[in-house]
Amino acid sequence: MGQPQHTLNLTNLPKPAPKRSRRRREWMPPLDWTAGHGPVTGALSATTGAAAVALFGAATSMPPGWPMAAGAAGALGHGVGHTLIRRMTGRTLVTRAASWLLAGGWTTWAMATGPLSWAAAGTLATLGVGIGAMASHAAIWEEAVEEERISAEAREAARKLSAGREAIAREWEARIKRVTGIDVRVFAVEQWKTGAGFSLAAELPGGAATWDRIAAAARALATDARLPLGCTVGVEEGDRQGRVVLDIATRNVMAGSYDYPDDYSALSILTGIPWGLLPNSETVEVVLREACALILGPPGAGKSTFLDVVLAGFARCTDVLTFLVDLKAGAAGMSWVRPWLEALGRARTKPGTARPPEDTRPGVDWLAATPEEALRMFRAALAINGARQLGYQDLMDREDTTLLPVSAQVPQIMIVVDEGAELLSATSFRDPTMKALQEAVKKTMRTTRAMGIRLVLTAVDGNVSALGDTSVRKFSPVGVALTSGESSGNNLAKLFPAAKVDTRQLTAKGCGVIGQAGADGFAPTGFKGWRTSPAMVRQVVLATNDRRPTLDAVSARAAGEDYARRWEADRAGWLWQHPGNDTGEETGPEEAGPEDGSVYESPRPGRPGGLNLSYQRPAPGPAEDADALADRFMREIDATYGTTDEPRPTPEPERPAGLNLSYQRRRPDAPEPAAAGGPDWLPEAVALIAAAGTAGMKPSAVADAVGRDRKTVRAALRAAADRGELAYRDNGPHSVYVHPDHT
User: Fold this and answer.
1) Residue 594 — very low, low, confident or very high, per pLDDT cuts 50/70/90?
2) Is the per-residue pLDDT at 390 higher than 70?
3) CATH for 675-742, among 1.10.155, 1.10.10, 3.30.420, 1.10.357?
4) Is the distance from CB of 309 to CB of 260 less than 8 angstroms?
């Protein structure tokens, strides 16, 4: 569907071969008439050609000198000229020239004595064997000479390369001696494949000389070598004590700007996820199966961009589900859920961009923008942890491991908390919800490693005042310190106290230091993060839509309603219910769950099995006509709003077209509705909002205060804001209406 249709030009198709020709090809040996002659085929060609010319010349009384002249011309042209042009050896030249002359001489003799005699046949056979032997020997000799020539060139290149490495080794031996006073011996030099620098391996002399003395002088070594700005000298211990390795960058990779690679191929949490570029232009990968990660960076250092890189890596994994917490109105997750909103018609698709398919899922599996929703998420994670410990005992016993074997069927859950300082450093004793949330976060970090639940947190800095206590750093073996915008290296010192990385050379946006402790880890090193954009996020979401896993049944049952209804309007409606939404949509998917009330639903025809998520439920089909649908809606509205079938007044007053909702009907003794300025309860609502001061009131709080439904209150307040009677303060799920006197 949608592919261009091509028409075949039947006149250009090859005609089928006759049946007799096809039968002949079945028994004939395959021949390649374009292939060059070897020693055997060359000799055979020469002898058969000479015999044919002799027979033809004897039959036509050809002058005997002609074949000899042809042989001399062949010896001069092919034997001498072609050999010299190809720069082949003298042995090949002699072989070719002799073959032409012998063939021409035999042809002349055979024409004179008769080509059909036994003497002619015997000499021709002997001639063929001799030509073949000479050609074979010449070919072997030519091959040996060619190999020797290549080996000589390789030896010369290796000699030059070795000389270059030797010069580098002697230069840096002298430099280290001059700067540090340590007399080292460089025994290996390796040029980086990217051409951005090289590495040295050296032996220390012993005694008081240790590798960290050289590491302390890394900046002085870079200065002495006159390296370009941004190029550093990295120093670390070698493969054994008494050895040191120096990584010397000669091209400033950190100063460049690099887009996230357009390779969205599948990854695994078990093998490593790319997070950026090393100074040698190779990717740096982290293994997070058992590790939490802590990302620190001052404002403007690129944390939001780096967080998109983290989320992109998780989206590419076939064995990872991503939960995202952002208490700043969910800003970090908006780009990751927008393709889903566009597919549902809850957000407008950018002009010139195709609307996502209807089965598009959110790029993150759960998005929490309020402390209440985040608390639901972490309580669900702790419940999943307990359920997995019991529900997968057989699986762990079969695999003989105490760690849950994560896979696409039992995915790991990565909980990403943006600006964790806002969550962990909040004054918890004033807010019970925040206190419970902080305890849930710390408990999740401490207790869920074995069952495949890990966290990635970001913060402005690593102070205890920002992280709550030191346990966050303790349980985060993967550390990232973004250094753009800071000059003192405080975050580096908090994450990697013993690291010897010069952050003064890592000041470009997106630069930082990354390291991982443990068996899968690596020493702290400078790195460069990739550049991301909403368009790139959209591509990742769509490219991985069919590859991202769903939550396993054991975990889904444990998470319960908190997980199953995470995308419904009463909890996620803030994503599309806002004045800036130009799609005209006011409500989200409100479909009912399974008839038995369970969270997990078995497969049904036309619908894949798995969680009964509202965004996956199909819309009512044509079998449910408009009357039946209206009747079902009336029953639901009656149950919700207490609609009754009281007698209608006579004559019946005019009412707007639509459903006969009880809250829209006016009793005979009710006061007349207010004028065009709004309903009769609006002044009371405005007074309540004015009394709230600068904090304002949410539409839901106003609806509870005036005893009206939220949709009606929201519409009236929006109209009042349009008239200037109120002011709307847009803050995502925390949006409020404020009196103009307090704006």
Assistant:
1) very low
2) yes
3) 1.10.10
4) yes
